[in-house]
Amino acid sequence: MTRRSFLAFLTLSGFSLVSGCSTVNLPKDSLVLSLGSDPVTLNPILASDSASLSVIDFLFNGIIRVDEDQKIQPDLAESIKILNNGLVYRIVLRKDVYFHDGVRLTADDVVFTYEKILDPKTNTVRRSDMVVDNVPIKVIKVDNFTLDFVLPGVFSPFISNLGIGILPKHILENQDINTSDFNRMPIGTGPFIMKKWQVADKILLESNKRYYRGKPLLNSLIMKIIPDSSSQVFSYETGDIDMVDLRPKDVAWIKEDPTSTVVSYPIKAYTYLGFNLKNRLFEDRNVRVAIAHAIDKDALVKAVLMGYGGVLNYPTCPLDWSYPEGLWYPEYNPEKADEILDSAGWKRGSNGLRYKNNQPFRFTCLIRQGSKDREMAGVIIQQYLEKRGIKMDLVTLEWSSLLQRLTSEKKDFDATIMGWGLGIDPDPYGIWYSKEYPNGFNLNGYNNPEVDRLIILGRQTIDQEKRKKIYRKVYKIIVQDQPYVFLWYPKSIVAYRNWVKGLSKPNPSGLIVYPERIYVERIRG
User: What parts of the sequence cross the membrane (predicted)?
Assistant: First the structure.
């Protein structure tokens, strides 16, 4: 999963761009953005949340990058050659790339970065990107600017996994990478340099004058920490930020503002109601299917997205080439939901709540605080389930607290409304492969041996049409198992002030694919 694709969403805490009409106190050569929360870490191989990745993307470069047409392009690589029938990837690095401290990037830094990913002591969820059939990929230095990735077998998603930011060996080689101060004040090769981080307030980045693509046109980036989406819109309206992600209900009035431009575009992401499959309530597949039958997703999505997105029934979105058509899924059918729950032993009590072995069907659903769309969806789903005798309590948590509950080995949650951003390659290993639980992205403990087998087969298959057939089988089984109730795929809606120039054309990677090209012609007064 590339940095930008992952940014598209492990979530609710995506970053919004922002500044407003009254710009007297804002520097002319700065862009002011917002973050939904403080980052967890600014080390690219440790990060797994969108707030962290949003900042990291300005600070680091990978071997490859994804352009605004969703094509893979070399970044730190000068060239990439595939040798030995796809088992060797030879990378020749650019010779004009320097870390922010002035030290030149070499093959040693790339080898160090990927060896740290493979090191079992490193707290990273990216190790599966470097393992084929349980055998680690070898990273071999050929000379100072050339290295080989040697694969133990064919691995079709491999090149799309080379977007991770490269770390400076000379700084980190004698440090504990999990606890280093570097993770808060990192040194990368990217277009901007980390200058200051004031927790719960803002992050300040300054331009990298030695950036290999040329000095950025902006002198600085200011990223304000604004956890609530409504507060972000208010900050945009009052002139504190230059760009903002909009909720559908906010589009009409902002479109009337002559100083703003509003754009909408599809993104490779989806939102779901996910169950902790280790919880006794959700061990039974039939119960999960019944819950899916109980939710009118058409009405839900119409209410929440207001046309900016669509109903989703599968574990991928329509932008992905692997998207299936015509698979069975549990349609809205409350009578069927009641029938399944009755058959599973969940009988209604006199108070209308369902019980089994004298235990009520009651659980807690976690949602990120400030994510108004998902909060709204939670209330609607709560009402649908209550009609079926199921009590769902909603709990909103600050992002880092929610992430801790979901990703800790304890997996301290019953259910959650969350989302995934999808990569250039549809490889579903990280989310659905059984061994990615509990320390990977398989947050809910899904385990199906046939899905595991097919995922590995998909990784070993080069032909795209054959892979598509394999993934169709994967999706069919997952939908039948219903570890998630798949809810919707969204469109991103972004407003920005007309003085923000140099943005990318609207595309699934967002409007800031090339940060070094952005500049502002700020209005004063």
Answer: none
**Which DSSP helix (H) or strand (E) runs through 291?**
helix 285-294
The residues pairing with 397 across neighbouring beta strands, listed in sequence order, are 368
> Could you write out the three-class secondary structure of 200-232?
CCEEEEEECCCCCCCCCCCCEEEEEECCCHHHH
Helix H or strand E segment including 260 = strand 260-266
Task: Label residues 440-453 b or e (16+ Cβ within 10 Å = b).
Answer: bbbbbbbbbeebbe
How many CA atoms lie within 13 Å of 81's alpha carbon, on the beta-carbon side? 8
* Residue 184 within any structural domain of the chain: no
H or E stretch covering 296? none
Beta-ladder partners of 495: 244, 262
Q: Are 505 and 68 in contact (CB under 8 A)?
A: yes
Six token digits for residue 133: 């059939």
- The CATH number of residue 282's host domain is 3.10.105.10
Q: Which of 124, 81, 197 is nearest to 407 (CA)?
A: 124
Q: Is the peptide bond prior to 438 cis by the omega test (within 30 degrees of 0)?
A: yes
Answer whether 358's CB lies under 8 Å from 350's CB. Answer: no
Contact 349, 357 (CB under 8 A): no
Residue pLDDT, tens place only, 410-443: 999 999 999 999 999 999 999 999 999 998 899 9
- How many angstroms separate the Cα of 197 from the Cα of each of 176, 376, 403? 21, 32, 20
Q: Provide the residue count of the chain.
A: 525
For residue 331, the enclosing domain spans 269-490
Diameter over CA atoms, the chain: 76
Tally of domains in the chain:
1
Q: SS3 of 164, please?
A: coil
Percentage of residues of the chain with pLDDT beyond 70? 94
Q: Return all residues near 358 (Cβ < 8 A) that are at least 6 apart.
A: none
DSSP per residue, 239-288:
TS-SEEEPPGGGHHHHHT-TTEEEEEEE-SEEEEEEE-TTSGGGSSHHHH
The alpha carbons of the chain give a radius of gyration, in whole angstroms, of: 23
pLDDT tens sequence across 328-370: 999 999 999 999 999 999 999 999 999 999 999 999 999 999 8
* Structural tokens at position 47: 């990060």
Q: Is 503 inside any structural domain?
A: no
Question: Whole-angstrom distance between the N-terminal and C-terminal Cα of the chain?
Answer: 44
Pick from 469, 455, 485: which is nearest to 314 by CA? 485
* Domain membership flag for residue 521: no
Whether 316 is in a domain gets the answer yes
For residue 166, what are its two tokens?
């490269």
CA nearest neighbour of 425 among 266, 314, 268, 271: 268
Q: What is the dihedral of CA 353, 297, 455, 54, to 10 degrees?
A: -100
Q: What is the pLDDT of residues 1-18, one digit of tens each?
A: 333 333 333 333 333 333
Return the residue matching tokens 């803002």.
202
CB 298 within 8 A of CB 379: no
| Cα dihedral 493/495/496/502 (nearest 10) | 30
